[in-house]
Structure formats: structure tokens, C-alpha cells
């Protein structure tokens, strides 16, 4: 078991410093070329890999151009165009309805506030945070996806379980200038080393500060269960 720093803030600082060194080019991995494409890619990425989403959006973004195209597409046709994505029927319906609202209530533009974004179908706080950060350069919070959730708990940064509560705690201890990058660093480390089922603690740059480190700790703090 590693020994975490004395306070959650200093623990967050060392985590950020080490991960920045490890992943200097860490950034969003979804592909898009405008705000609407970003919004659609993020809606599609719920419980689906970014890689799969990028493959599917390559042809999707060629076929559909602008919110009217999605809003006017028949449900079956759009669903069929997304059929390798998890929950493609629901996601097709969210996209059609969100685009309808964008056309009717926002002059065809993706809104730039948390409340307007979360009023759109299929858009929760996590999706809205990603769109605000990468589409509008507005950083209002920290995107808590499954990797951020798992790593924050494993590393002793929070004991909260729900993403919204984790976000609030992280916002207290992660310096505001790192709110956006913190997510990408956690995602990169979660993919490369600290995977859900079989983290490579031996090869981890955080092993000496991680209270879940498998060598000594019996417990995975992310799940609260023994390793
Ligand atoms: S890989 Fe192991 S040591 Fe590294 S952060 Fe994950 S649980 Fe901790």
C-alpha cells in the first residue's frame, strides 16, 4: 500500500504532477469538427468506447450536416446509421430531440450554458461539462466519467460514490486551472495502467502514494471490495 499525502489537496497535486509527466499530450479522444459534432459524439459515447464512436461518426458526420438534418431524419433511419453503438435506438431519439430543440429554441446553435445544455435530451451534467469545455472554452466543473470515478476513489481523493458528489469534492481539491486536464489524465491512466479489473500497480507511477496499491492493500478502494 502506498502512503497518500497528508491532505486531499496535496494528494491531488502529486497525482496531477506525476500523471502530467506520464501523459504530456493527454486530451479528448473523440473526433469532431464543430460543436454539434462534439455534442453528438459525447451523447453517443455513454457506455460505449470512444474508438467505436469515432468509427461510427466518420460516416455519420458525412451524411448529416447540421441540426435540421438530424431533427428531420426518420427515427429508424438514424438508429440504423448508429447500429454499432450501445443503446443506439435511445441515442438516436435523444439526438433527434436535442437537435429539434437546438433548431427551435437556440437558432440552430449548441447552447453555451449548463442549464440550457442539460435541458436537451440525453444531456446530463457530464456531457454538458465536456461540451462547455471543448466546444465553448467554458470550464464550470470536472467531468466525472467511469475512469475519474474509479481513480479518484482508489487514490483516496474521495469516498463519495455518485459522480455528482465526486465532482463537488474534486472541485474543492483540484486547482481550477486543472479541472479540464484532470479528467483526461485520469482517463489516460485508467486506460493504460489503472484498469477496472486488473490494474498494473507494479508499473504504476502512483504506486507509492496510492492507498489501493495491490502489493500491500487488501482492498480496492474504488469498489470497497478485496482485490
Ligand atoms: S494502478 Fe494500482 S497503484 Fe496505480 S493508481 Fe491504480 S490502484 Fe493505485
UniProtKB/TrEMBL annotation:
The keyword Thylakoid does not apply. Gene3D superfamilies: Helix-hairpin-Helix base-excision DNA repair enzymes (C-terminal), Hypothetical protein, domain 2. Its EC number is 4.2.99.18. It comes from the Archaea. It holds the Pfam family HhH-GPD. Residues 44-192 form the HhH-GPD domain. InterPro entries: DNA_glycosylase, Endonuclease3_FeS-loop_motif, HhH-GPD_domain, HhH_base_excis_C, HhH_motif, Nth. Signal peptide: none annotated. It is an enzyme of class 4 (lyase). [4Fe-4S] cluster binds at residues 194, 201, 204, 210. HAMAP family: Nth. DNA repair enzyme that has both DNA N-glycosylase activity and AP-lyase activity. The DNA N-glycosylase activity releases various damaged pyrimidines from DNA by cleaving the N-glycosidic bond, leaving an AP (apurinic/apyrimidinic) site. The AP-lyase activity cleaves the phosphodiester bond 3' to the AP site by a beta-elimination, leaving a 3'-terminal unsaturated sugar and a product with a terminal 5'-phosphate. This is Endonuclease III. It comes from Natrarchaeobius chitinivorans. The gene is nth.
